[in-house]
Amino acid sequence: VLFGPPGTAKTTICEALAKRMGYDFVVIDTAVFLTDGLSNVSARIRYVFKRLMALRKCIILFDEIEEFCLNRENPDLSMESRMLTTSMLTAINDLRRKKQSLFFIATNRLRAFDSAITRPGRFDMNLLVGTPNLQSRIIQFKQQL
């Protein structure tokens, strides 16, 4: 899980890793799950993950998918949101068991996630991606030239 403020290159890190490893790179965001409308999100989760499980040698980035992984212990959370989180847990477990691709979550809101999503064993680590200091920005700028 890569977390930190917006604009800190979480997506770029995953893309660079894929390039370095010679893997394909796929970004899955909230819109992918909402293609068929709000009432079909659970079915869409199953469909998307079925396709993801067919991939090999791929870096998969789940970008800002908090709305489908919200903390189920929140008393204000609707039953539908709890069910979506449970669906995502099952789908992520199945994807992890395949061991054919690497996958990451990028988020600005780590605390919004259900602890079962971000626990060790489901994701290997939570990594803060902070704002680069001046020296790092200079290095990045030179690399872009």
UniProtKB/TrEMBL annotation:
<dbReference type="InterPro" id="IPR003959">
    <property type="entry name" value="ATPase_AAA_core"/>
</dbReference>
<dbReference type="InterPro" id="IPR003593">
    <property type="entry name" value="AAA+_ATPase"/>
</dbReference>
<dbReference type="GO" id="GO:0005524">
    <property type="term" value="F:ATP binding"/>
</dbReference>
<dbReference type="Pfam" id="PF00004">
    <property type="entry name" value="AAA"/>
</dbReference>
<dbReference type="InterPro" id="IPR027417">
    <property type="entry name" value="P-loop_NTPase"/>
</dbReference>
<dbReference type="GO" id="GO:0016887">
    <property type="term" value="F:ATP hydrolysis activity"/>
</dbReference>
<feature type="domain" description="AAA+ ATPase">
    <location>
        <begin position="1"/>
        <end position="133"/>
    </location>
</feature>
<protein>
    <submittedName>
        <fullName>p-loop containing nucleoside triphosphate hydrolase protein</fullName>
    </submittedName>
</protein>
<dbReference type="InterPro" id="IPR050168">
    <property type="entry name" value="AAA_ATPase_domain"/>
</dbReference>
<keyword id="KW-0067">ATP-binding</keyword>
<keyword id="KW-0378">Hydrolase</keyword>
<keyword id="KW-0547">Nucleotide-binding</keyword>
